[in-house]
């Protein structure tokens, strides 16, 4: 009696294995991948910085075992690891298609020498970052990114209406602030109360322009009761060399006859 029960249980276990094992094998890509292959990849992307070839190359390593065995989380991670990719979302569409949506990082500023800042305040490295033009240049310790962005926005607001715009912000390791303006001028603000010092300068800036043509080169605002300003040196006047008047040629002596 007991032996018969054991045999029945073994039979049921074998039957169940024969049913489950093929399913597990297909889902894990152990076999029959060629019977249910991924035949189509539909990609939705902007293609500003990421090419279709790069995306398809990243996907290719994850669809070879068939439609059912394709692991979407691994596929998404492979595409998201590409430069310029913010995120990737993939889903399967029966019977043989993978739908993929790729969102690119949108740079809003440069960070240091060769990195960028995305619209969601993420620091990232990407090919050609050091050559991108038209973006404000921000710099500082990576863990101070939020402070640098906040000060950039604050400085832009203070300078509004002055005719000057901020082109760059730098925070040194010691906590000292420096502004670069779009006209090539620089502002040294120091470590303490940089917004107040900048506002103080803007309050007197219209009077400073009196008697000056062109932009200042640099302003040092690190003084407690004033600031130092450097104007470009006026080009030295050049006296044109004197032009000598041509002298009349001396008359030639008369020729003498030969006897």
UniProtKB/TrEMBL annotation:
Topology term for the membrane: Single-pass type II membrane protein
Similarity field: Belongs to the FtsQ/DivIB family. FtsQ subfamily.
Primary gene name: ftsQ
Boundaries of every POTRA domain copy: 36-105
Residue ranges with Low complexity bias: 240-259
Chief location bin: membrane
GO biological process, one term: FtsZ-dependent cytokinesis
Described purpose of this protein according to its UniProt entry: Essential cell division protein. May link together the upstream cell division proteins, which are predominantly cytoplasmic, with the downstream cell division proteins, which are predominantly periplasmic. May control correct divisome assembly.
Protein name (record): Cell division protein FtsQ
Keyword vocabulary terms for this entry: Cell cycle, Cell division, Cell inner membrane, Cell membrane, Membrane, Transmembrane, Transmembrane helix
Segments of this protein annotated with the region Disordered: 236-259
Pfam family, one: POTRA_1
Cell location: Cell inner membrane; Membrane
Record's subunit section: Part of a complex composed of FtsB, FtsL and FtsQ.
Domain of life: Bacteria
Gene Ontology CC annotations of this record: cell division site; plasma membrane
Alphabetical list of InterPro entries matching this protein: Cell_div_FtsQ/DivIB_C, FtsQ, FtsQ_C_sf, POTRA, POTRA_FtsQ_type
Parts of the chain that traverse the membrane: 9-31
């Amino acid at each position: 009696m007991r032996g018969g029960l054991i045999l029945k249980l073994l039979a049921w276990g074998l039957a169940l294995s024969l049913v489950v094992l093929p399913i597990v094998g297909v889902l894990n890509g152990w076999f029959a991948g060629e019977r249910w292959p991924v035949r189509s990849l539909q990609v939705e992307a902007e293609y500003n910085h990421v090419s279709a070839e790069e995306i398809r190359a990243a996907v290719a390593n994850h669809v070879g075992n068939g439609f059912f065995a394709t692991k979407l989380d691994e596929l998404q991670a492979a595409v998201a690891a590409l430069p310029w990719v913010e995120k990737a979302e993939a889903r399967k569409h029966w019977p043989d298609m993978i739908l993929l949506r790729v969102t690119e990082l949108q740079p809003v500023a440069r960070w240091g020498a060769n990195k960028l800042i995305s619209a969601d305040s993420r620091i990232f490295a990407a090919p050609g970052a050091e050559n991108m033009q038209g973006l404000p240049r921000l710099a500082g310790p990576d863990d101070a990114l939020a402070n640098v962005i906040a000060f950039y926005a604050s400085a832009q607001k203070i300078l509004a209406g002055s005719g000057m715009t901020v082109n760059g912000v730098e925070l040194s390791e010691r906590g000292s602030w420096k502004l670069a303006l779009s006209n090539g001028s620089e502002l040294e603000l120091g470590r303490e109360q940089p917004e107040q010092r900048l506002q103080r300068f803007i309050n007197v800036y219209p009077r400073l322009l009196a008697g000056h043509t062109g932009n200042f080169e640099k302003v040092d605002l690190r003084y407690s009761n004033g600031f130092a300003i450097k104007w470009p040196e006026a080009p030295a006047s050049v006296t044109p060399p004197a032009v000598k008047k041509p002298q009349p040629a001396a008359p030639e002596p008369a020729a003498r006859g030969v006897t």
